[in-house]
Amino acid sequence: MDAKGLHAVFADQLKDLYNAESQLVKALPKLRDSADNSDLKDAISRHLEQTKHQIIRLEQLFERLDEKPTGQECFAMKGLIQEAYDVGRKHYAPPALDAALIAVLQRIEHYEVAGYGTARSFAKHLGDEESANLLQQTLSEEAQADRVLSELAENEINSRAIETGAAAG
Ligand code: FE
Ligand code: ZN
Ligand code: FE
Ligand code: FE
Questions:
Q1: What is the value of pTM for the model shown?
Q2: CA 81/CA 79 separation, integer angstroms
Q3: What's the N-to-C CA distance of the chain in angstroms?
Q4: How confident is residue 166, by pLDDT bands cut at 50, 70 and 90?
Q5: Residue 17 CA: which ligand is closest?
Q6: One CATH from 1.20.1260.10, 3.60.21.10, 3.30.70.20, 3.40.190.10 for 6-168
Q7: Ligand 1 mean position to 142 CA, how many Å?
């Protein structure tokens, strides 16, 4: 069997992203329900809808490449989601819980930004401009989701979190 090249790496990266997004579609509703702040809940709901569309976009890519989106589990996303669930078990006061949720959600968005940035770069090197464009659309959404979370944290949640709860526990 011939050793596999960049096409195979590209396809495997897309499978990893597909599995990661599929995990998120299940996890985001639970994380939204565990959040306290209504603006944070709304932000998570909006990104959940975007995430469903990102999955459709990846399915379009698999169609283009004549590949199936199976056979790859994203262990990193599994771990990040586990950390997000753990936030709910730490007995934080509600605004502190929101701050901690945002901390994990931003790690998730950064992880996705890294994955889509790399995949877009592979698509460009393979001369597949249309795939690169699809990946750029999702990349922009992930970066925007990260900015929204930063603004929520900096404009309201962090300052409220500082006023509540004991200093250490
Ligand atoms: Fe995503
Ligand atoms: Zn992964
Ligand atoms: Fe780490
Ligand atoms: Fe995302």
A1: 0.93
A2: 5
A3: 57
A4: low
A5: 2
A6: 1.20.1260.10
A7: 6
